Amino acid sequence: MLNFRRIPVWTQDFRRHLSSTGALFRGQNVIEKIVQDYSVDLPKGKLVHSGDYVTIKPAYVMTHDNSWPVAMKFMGLGAKKVHNNRQIVNALDHDVQNKSEKNLTKYRNIEYFAHEQGIDFYPAGRGIGHQIMIEEGYAFPGTLTVASDSHSNTYGGIGALGTPIVRTDAAAVWATGQTWWKVPPVAKVELKGKLPKGATGKDVIVALCGLFNHDEVLNHALEFTGDHMDQLPVDYRLTIANMTTEWGALSGVFPIDKTLLEFYKGRLARLGHNHPRITKERLDKLASSYVKADVDAYYDKTLTIDLSTVEPCVSGPNSVKIGNPVSKLSSHNIKVDKAYLVSCTNSRLSDIIAAAAIVEGHKVAPGVKFYVAAASSEIQKDAEKAGAWQTLLDAGAIPLPAGCGPCIGLGVGLLEPGEVGISATNRNFKGRMGSPDALAYLASPEVVAASAVMGKISSPVEVLGKPCPEANTVKTTIKKNEKDEDEDAVEEIDEPASGKVLEGFPENISGEIVLLDADNINTDGIYPGKYTYQDDVSRETMAKVCMQNYDLEFGNKTKAGDILVAGYNFGTGSSREQAATAILARDMPMVIAGSFNNTFSRNAINNALLTLQIPELIEKLRLTFANEEKIPTRRTGWRFNWDVPKSVVTVVDSKNTVVLKQKVSEVGRNLQAIIVQGGLEGWVKSYLNKA
Predict the structure, then answer these.
(1) What sign has the CA pseudo-torsion 519, 323, 202, 357?
(2) Mean pLDDT over the full length of the chain
(3) 39, 109, 268, 392 — which has fewest CB within 10 A?
(4) Is 162 helix (H, G, I), strand (E, B) or coil?
(5) Over the stretch 445-455, which tens digit does the pLDDT of each residue have?
(6) Separation CA 395–CA 375 (nearest Å)
(7) How does 256-269 read in b/e, with b if 16+ C-beta sit within 10 Å?
(8) CATH homologous superfamily of domain 53-308?
(9) Which parts of the chain sit beneath pLDDT 70?
(10) Contact yes or no for 585/532 (Cβ under 8 A)
(11) ∠ at Cα 535 (530, 537), nearest 5°?
(12) Whole-Å CA distances, 214 to 150, 242, 245
């Protein structure tokens, strides 16, 4: 996705442009520095900044139960041997309760492939892949580690840049060692003050999701800072980083500090001196030199939360954007049918011990089922050794194998119609944990355990027979970078043309704008789900059903060559590549939107569909047609033109009056190469043929 915006003299994009040409240098934030270290084929002297498209060679890529689909895609590219088997980790964790022959066959296929290729493999029961990546030192402070799973953000809790990729990207990394990434805008999140007794990391992220719930951090990378950060346990950091996904961010990275270094000293003591990745030498090097933001680093915005005002919070029902103090919900006497202490979010040792402390001496309430699963087999062994595991079982908890399970609607313990569940997981989307007619809430392990004992959503203090304290107000602020606040449109652009295009990449893209006047257009709307798993759908059929669920008249109102302009968060929902290829099947060269869902953006580029983010354009269109009948698909009579070598976009209205003209960042040769080859798969095939 290309981020096009108005550019006055000192905005971010202009500074980045000057930096890349050597005319001006500015500092880098932590995200940019880590990406710099893991980017390949950069122009000499190039400093990586937000908005740049780069080719990255991540330290590691993790795939889980989707390893076999990735392997199938990998082999479909003509690849036979992975580029670097030390870069790849396979961990079976999602459907570990499924003992059907079909699932076991898939698991055997993954294990055989990993053994054949020399890939590090972790079988079902060893634990959740993200936890393994941390325990075994694959994700490590200051590194870039990716996974074909949305909760790779978890790695940010230990100072690594963890970010999700789609299956095509994973196959590309397997085959070539690299893929592409767009450096996102970076926001700073300041955690001021200290958490009061009883509040946890889960309460912090639930509060953030509920209070900043208008896409403030959508598709951003986050850097967490704070005046008492050293007092925030690493497990709390992992929980917060994990749920930056639900907050809408691409990653959330905590600083490397003495608390983190002590955490790793503990890991080293447990693992001994023969571990291949967590070693004394590596930790000594980390302690002496680690990545920090420059004093003049740029941040798109700064969000602040006063930790001293945070209290136990509950998210829901059925949305992470709804948050309330548990003290408020307790008075509503919301009956609980099922409680869950599972998942990669809150099933570490400290979580299990905290939950056990709540239930000790008590029993799970009649009619309530309380499910527990450790994030890894190592954690379960430690919990058993500490006695916490047995305490939970004595209270009536139902154990599940180390893995994902009910968090993603798999295995036993799913919510039935009409039931209410409270969970220490990361998502409570409608229907995710079972029936769409159930209600799901999220909370900390302590609140979940208390609710299991009390039979209703409850505060831990209620288990002790004490009343809930009065709810207070969590203090937050948000500030956009001042240099972005007074932007004016640029009508005259004096920058010399410096861009060059590869042979086969268009120098000019133009067409009539078709307005799709809606936000959050999802992938089901773009490409109906009933066709998604049909392998024999023709290009003609894909073109015919494109946008059918969004607007039945779309096919009659549009034609080849049209430029689609939509609202915000375009392409949300399921990760289906056909949402991009269906638009291409209609011979439409690109989509412009106020903003894009990140997964759609990756699928678009991976399939050679260009996307531009121009919020000013959608706002101008909406203002112009505000007094006309609101229809989902409108031919506007406006013309869009993108001069690629000059990096300039121009829009004229039906009277041929220029309504928008913007200088934009250049399209890098790495991105051009992917488009020219028809997408990432074509690029990989070309790479392999040259190798």
Answers:
(1) negative
(2) 91
(3) 109
(4) strand
(5) 999 999 999 99
(6) 20
(7) bbebbbebbeebbe
(8) Aconitase, domain 3 (3.30.499.10)
(9) 1-25, 482-499, 533
(10) no
(11) 70
(12) 20, 19, 14
Residue 125 CA to residue 96 CA, distance in Å, equals 7
How many angstroms separate the Cα of 635 from the Cα of each of 292, 527, 638? 49, 21, 8
Are 53-308 and 489-690 the same fold in CATH? Answer: no
Give the rounded distance of the alpha carbon of 233 from its chain centre. Answer: 23
Element containing residue 608 per DSSP (H, E): none
Q: Residue 312 has which token pair? A: 């136990």
Sorted by sequence, the CB contacts under 8 Å of residue 157 that are 6+ apart come out as: 134, 234, 237, 238, 239, 240, 241, 242, 254
Tokens encoding 620: 């101008």
Q: Which two tokens stand for residue 5?
A: 């915006």
Tokens encoding 589: 């060269």
CB atoms within 10 A of CB 636: 18
SS3 16: helix
Parallel/antiparallel/unpaired status of strands 39-40 and 53-56: antiparallel
**Pick among 3.40.605.10, 3.40.830.10, 3.40.50.720, 3.30.499.10: CATH of 314-463:** 3.30.499.10
Among the listed residues 665, 511, 461, the one whose alpha carbon sits nearest the alpha carbon of residue 7: 665
d(CA 92, CA 145): 18
d(CA 642, CA 644): 6
Largest CA distance in the chain: 78
Q: Where are the domains of the chain?
A: 53-308, 314-463, 489-690
HSE (CB half, 13 Å, CA atoms) of 271?
Answer: 18
Amino acid code (one letter) for 46: K
Query: By the 8 A CB rule, do 129 and 67 touch?
Result: no
Burial of 69 per CB tally in 10 Å (0-12, 13-18, 19+): middle
**Cα dihedral: 654, 656, 660, 666 (round 10):** 110
Q: 382: how many CB neighbours lie within 10 A of its CB?
A: 18
Q: What is the CATH number of domain 489-690?
A: 3.20.19.10
Q: How far apart are the C-alpha atoms of 336 and 369, rounded to whole Å?
A: 9
Are 202 and 239 spatial neighbours (Cβ–Cβ below 8 Å)? yes
Model confidence, pTM: 0.88
CA 42 to CA 390: how far, in whole Å? 54
Please spell the DSSP secondary structure of 224-293, one letter per residue: EE-TTGGGS-HHHHHHHHHTHHHHT-SEEEPPP-HHHHHHHHHHHHHH-S--SSS-HHHHHHHHH-----
Whole-Å CA distances, 110 to 147, 227, 280, 287, 567? 16, 46, 33, 37, 40
| Residue 556 neighbours by CB under 8 Å, 6+ apart | none
d(CA 70, CA 79): 12
Rg of the chain on CA atoms, in Å? 25
Identify any residues that bridge with 190 across adjacent strands, giving them in sequence order. Answer: 225, 304
pLDDT in the model for residue 496? 45
- CA count, 13 A, side-chain hemisphere, 489: 13
CA separation for the pair 548, 543 (Å, rounded): 10
In the chain, the amino acid numbered 382 is D
Intra-chain end-to-end CA distance of the chain, in Å: 29
Cis, bond preceding 317 (omega within 30 deg of 0): yes
